[in-house]
């Protein structure tokens, strides 16, 4: 605990801790693999009444794990009992800040078509308002109430909670719909869904006729999809006077929403908040991850009871932090009161996510290491301390280069304040900011730039075009996207063949819009028909959807895990490795044991299989017959290239640069091609941490680029800068091209 002067921790404690650390140094590490297995088996032991036998028949190993929804529901119920066994569910509902305003709110909804609702996180907007409306009769005559959430996790967990409160099974009256997972039925009247899913519903039901109420929740997040929903919903509200529109948001931006919806009234739910003391560091932190770990331990050792919430930027960082914390706690051993370290991020398996909601056992302290998701989308009871390094991961898009990447950036002041607010929900709290007061005032932006102004708009433009909205420049945006980004999206869709030279949707474009994936991925999938490898490409697409969670690498088995991973190696690159993993898993009979032995996460593979099945269904809908290329994986690589020819880089003078824009990029160290450094590569995505890393990299032949995108590439661009001869194969195909 070297740099513990940060928050004035008494010297005494410091020395004690250091001693302990030294003494416990020799303690044998716990077997993480075993623990991981226990976790999974523990989940399996909880098995009760698996949802339907049909699924079991299709996938015999399914009952091994509890169905996700059931698990969420179960944990929500457990949490309810745990938090306050005396209190009935209805009492808990009545205790929420929104409850005293129930009648007033219903009256306002009755009076106005559009209502903006503002209230602190945790006041009951998401869980209560839809129930009030349901009780009031808005779901009569088969009408539904739709509630959008920017995050899948929130949609699922909130739906689970509401199902418990209404005493129904998730998927019946209350359901949720997220991409590749529909947990609703004929009976569903309260439908929680991601904003992207509601957007897609416009494709099948352009006026949302089956909805009596649409609640756009977490509006302040200003995600791309939420922003577009604003425009579309405003439009349909005009000719559907009966439709009620609610725009719910934390205490931010509500005036803007009101102005956008022709000055709709704002309904404010007064918050109940305890004071939160804010502490800043005296000097900037060089390594905020390390600073987090140290600070958590300091809080744990010196502060009165209360759980800790740490905000980090993403999965990798969170896992690193959790590991560091667990390791230090292990070293400090039993002399340290128990510290439960729980991660939460979008890709985390839901039964592990649900653990953050379980009440902390007496005598222990819980530390939740979270992404932005805990800022406003989920409420964790019992948090008293917040640790805020002041960063978040944001999409950033350059219209000049057409490159979208995830970048770790300082969060906004509004975010920082939301984060601090999480500490004051149950008692007076403390927020430790790992930056200086000066930085807060001068370096943080007031609010975040809405996603629509920093994202690739390809998917969105494709969707709007297929909704018949052709004039994108004059679309009613709350904040318009940059002109260049729109133009670039149109150009990309043209290059992909989704639009013709008049900007109209082509047959290919229409098919692409049917697939709920990014245009490049959609193109890749559709191109597999022509190359006779739909089976393989569907697998690749499905595996890419879980890409960062396929391999498991426990800290004490790093060598084993890495060699297991290397053993999956096949020439060609990461996409083919993923294909290989999946195929071997299928060949093992979807064996869980096989997954353990090969350090592969069974859950991710199962999810990939679900995704794959759905994509397969969609392929049937666009009338593409299944085909397989057998061992000829070049065909698979060509199909991938047909979708991702924008994402290419060439090795020259020791480094990679993107082909079109000469941007320096690097192969991610986790890539199978990291050591090989082939001359021409294609990447699935760019992640910007210390550098621009290409993640999921595939070796390609430069001549394929001419074959798949002759209107985008010219032969001259693809000549080898090194002066060396082109690979033989490449030369040949060029001749073939004539
Ligand atoms: O939407 P808002 O932030 O205003 O509040 P909410 O999500 O409706 O949450 C109201 C209360 O429901 C929270 O204080 C939680 O105690 C509880 N809740 C829960 O137990 N489980 C969830 N998944 C969501 C909310
Ligand atoms: Mg909410």
From TrEMBL:
Region Disordered, annotated ranges: 1-33
GO biological process: one example: mRNA splicing, via spliceosome
Annotated ranges, domain Helicase ATP-binding: 106-270
Reactions the enzyme catalyzes: ATP + H2O = ADP + phosphate + H(+)
This protein's GO CC annotations: catalytic step 2 spliceosome; U2-type catalytic step 1 spliceosome
InterPro entries reported in the protein's UniProt record: DEAD-box_helicase_OB_fold (IPR011709), DEAD/DEAH_box_helicase_dom (IPR011545), DNA/RNA_helicase_DEAH_CS (IPR002464), HA2_WH (IPR048333), Helicase-assoc_dom (IPR007502), Helicase_ATP-bd (IPR014001), Helicase_C-like (IPR001650), P-loop_NTPase (IPR027417)
Catalytic class of the enzyme: hydrolase
Enzyme Commission number: 3.6.4.13
Localization per Swiss-Prot or TrEMBL: Nucleus
Keyword Transmembrane helix in record: no
Keywords: ATP-binding, Coiled coil, Helicase, Hydrolase, mRNA processing, mRNA splicing, Nucleotide-binding, Nucleus, Spliceosome
Family matches, as PANTHER family: ATP-DEPENDENT RNA HELICASE (PTHR18934), PRE-MRNA-SPLICING FACTOR ATP-DEPENDENT RNA HELICASE DHX16 (PTHR18934:SF83)
UniProt name for this protein: RNA helicase
């Amino acid at each position: 605990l070297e740099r513990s002067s940060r928050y004035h921790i008494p010297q005494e404690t410091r020395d004690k801790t250091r001693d302990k650390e030294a003494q416990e140094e020799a303690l044998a590490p716990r077997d993480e693999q075993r623990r991981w297995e226990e976790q999974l088996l523990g989940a399996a032991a909880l098995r009760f009444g698996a949802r339907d036998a049909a699924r079991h028949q299709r996938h015999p190993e399914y009952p091994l794990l509890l169905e996700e929804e059931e698990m969420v529901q179960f944990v929500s119920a457990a949490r309810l009992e745990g938090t306050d066994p005396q209190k009935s569910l209805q009492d808990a509902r009545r205790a929420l800040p929104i409850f005293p305003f129930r009648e007033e709110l219903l009256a306002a909804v009755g009076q106005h078509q559009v209502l903006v609702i503002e209230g602190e996180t945790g006041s009951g907007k998401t869980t209560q308002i839809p129930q009030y409306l349901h009780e009031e009769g808005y779901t009569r005559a088969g009408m539904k109430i739709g509630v959008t959430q920017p995050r899948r996790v929130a949609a699922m967990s909130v739906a689970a909670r509401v199902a418990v409160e209404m005493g129904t099974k998730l998927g019946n009256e209350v359901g949720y719909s997220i991409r590749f997972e529909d947990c609703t039925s004929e009976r569903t009247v309260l439908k929680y869904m991601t904003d992207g899913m509601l957007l897609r519903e416009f494709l099948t039901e352009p006026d949302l006729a089956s909805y009596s109420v649409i609640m756009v929740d977490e509006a302040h997040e200003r995600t791309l999809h939420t922003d577009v929903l604003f425009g579309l919903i405003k439009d349909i509200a005009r000719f559907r006077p009966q439709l009620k529109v609610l725009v719910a948001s934390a205490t931010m931006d509500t005036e803007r929403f009101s102005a956008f919806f022709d000055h709709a009234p704002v309904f404010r739910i007064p918050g109940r908040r305890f004071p939160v003391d804010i502490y800043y560091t005296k000097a900037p932190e060089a390594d905020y991850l390390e600073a987090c770990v140290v600070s958590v331990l300091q809080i744990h050792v010196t502060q009165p009871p209360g759980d800790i919430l740490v905000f980090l930027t993403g999965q990798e960082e969170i896992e690193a932090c959790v590991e560091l914390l667990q390791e230090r706690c292990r070293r400090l051993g039993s002399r340290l009161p128990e510290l439960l370290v729980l991660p939460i991020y979008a890709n985390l398996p839901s039964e592990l996510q649900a653990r953050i909601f379980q009440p902390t056992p007496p005598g222990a302290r819980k530390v939740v290491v979270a992404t932005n998701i805990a800022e406003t989308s989920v409420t964790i009871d019992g948090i008293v301390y917040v640790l805020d390094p002041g960063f978040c991961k944001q999409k950033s898009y350059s219209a000049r280069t057409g490159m979208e990447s995830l970048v770790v950036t300082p969060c906004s002041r509004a975010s920082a304040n939301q984060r601090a607010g999480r500490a004051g929900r149950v008692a007076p709290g403390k927020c430790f900011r790992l930056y200086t007061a000066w930085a807060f005032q001068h370096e943080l932006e007031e609010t975040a730039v809405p996603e629509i102004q920093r994202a690739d708009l390809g998917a969105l433009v494709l969707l709007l075009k297929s909704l018949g909205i052709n004039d994108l420049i004059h679309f009613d945006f709350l904040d318009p996207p940059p002109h260049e980004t729109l133009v670039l999206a149109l150009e990309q869709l043209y290059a992909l063949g989704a639009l013709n030279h008049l900007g109209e949707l082509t047959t290919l474009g229409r098919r692409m819009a049917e697939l709920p994936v990014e245009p490049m991925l959609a193109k890749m999938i559709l191109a597999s028909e022509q190359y006779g490898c739909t089976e393989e490409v569907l697998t690749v697409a499905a595996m890419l959807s879980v890409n960062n969670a396929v391999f498991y690498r426990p800290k004490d088995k790093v060598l084993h895990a890495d060699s297991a991973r290397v053993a999956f190696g096949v020439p060609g690159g990461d996409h083919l490795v993923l294909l290989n993993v999946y195929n071997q898993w299928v060949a093992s009979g979807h064996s869980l044991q096989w997954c353990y032995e090969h350090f592969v996460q069974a859950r991710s593979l199962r999810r990939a299989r679900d995704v794959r099945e759905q994509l397969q269904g969609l392929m049937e809908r666009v009338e593409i017959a299944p085909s397989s290329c057998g061992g000829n994986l070049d065909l698979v690589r060509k199909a991938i290239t047909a979708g991702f020819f924008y994402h290419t880089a060439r090795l020259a003078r020791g480094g990679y640069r993107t082909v079109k824009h000469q941007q320096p990029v690097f192969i991610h160290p986790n890539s199978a091609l990291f050591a090989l450094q082939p001359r021409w590569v294609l990447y699935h995505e760019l992640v910007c941490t210390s550098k621009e890393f290409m993640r999921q990299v595939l070796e390609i032949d430069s001549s394929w680029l001419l074959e798949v995108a002759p209107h985008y590439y010219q032969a001259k661009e693809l000549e080898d800068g090194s002066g060396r001869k082109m690979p033989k194969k490449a030369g040949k195909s060029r001749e073939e091209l004539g």
